[in-house]
Hints:
Elements: E1 13-15, E2 26-30, H1 40-53, E3 62-66, H2 70-82, E4 85-91, H3 96-104, E5 108-112, H4 123-134, E6 137-138, H5 145-162, E7 169-172, H6 178-189, E8 195-201, H7 206-212, E9 242-246, H8 248-262, H9 268-284, E10 290-294
Parallel strand pairs: 2-10, 3-4, 3-6, 4-5, 7-8, 7-10, 8-9
Antiparallel strand pairs: 1-2
The protein binds pyridoxal-5'-phosphate.
Pyridoxal-5'-phosphate binds at residues 68, 70, 173-179, 224-226, 267, 269, 295-296.
Amino acid sequence: MPSLLDAVGNTPLLPLRHIPRRGAPVLVKCEHLNPSGSIKDRIAVSIVEDARARGVLEPGATLIEATAGNTGIGLALVAAHHGYRLVCVMPQKMSEDKRRTLAAMGAQVIVTDDAPPSDPRNFQNVARAMAAERGWFLTDQFENPVNVAAHEHGTGPEILQQVDGRLAAFVAGAGTGGTLTGVGRCMAARGSSARLVLADPEGSVLAHWVRTGELGPDGRYAVEGIGGSVAPTNLDRSVVHEAETVSDEESFAMTRRLIREEGLFVGGSAGTAVVAALRVAERIGGDEPVVAVLPDGMDRYLSKGWLGG
Length: 309
Ligand SMILES: Cc1ncc(COP(=O)(O)O)c(C=O)c1O
């Protein structure tokens, strides 16, 4: 019997047709075409199936996650499929569109202040405390190794198969770091010489950390789902070779071009990844492709007005 969950993954890898580039070819991995609209469907399925296989989820159990929105929406799809209840804890910064989508999918949404990780009001700390107090299952994307494994055994092999093993570089932003670490471990295990490149928003501490091992200056930025003020557990610095810093203006201008010139209805962090990928492509040249991830869709951000007129 076919299952909605089988529709997760195996997303297209497409060339940029109109946005000019110099140097190596740039291909985009269309994760916004997953069933609930983001790359997070992959980890939502893997984390819940892993918990079921370990027998730690009772029928009708309550799942809880700290999320910028996308993992919550992916979990809402999986929770509906298996009959679980879902609670999502989101920082104030995240879009109204995501909150409304979560509520529409039947999730309980708790909005916290944009508090730093050291503060008990921080969304991750609130989710962890509620799970402990109420005996709910914390899916825990920031610490759960199944997040990384979903990309090491899913996204990575898919991309290598789609490029016949010929890959110059893989470029992605990092929220939990699961995508970059998982694909990076897959490349290392398969002996690929591809460069792993972090695409980081200006104002995040991660690019400086990748380059020096020291956290960079902590600032503010509008793009959602990537970057941070601390280095996430699931981001393994040893598999990341380089980092590109991209401003909100550059990210949103590129997102607008991806939508209007390529027909790719993607979100801001896709713009961040493609700006970084075009720089890498020009720098390394050659005919082996540079692959950039398009994690989610603009339907999650229409209320933000990022595209201007
Ligand atoms: C829009 C968006 N882009 C990129 C990412 C980064 O993915 P990862 O958590 O695998 O680093 C996220 C993660 O939440 C996201 O929501």
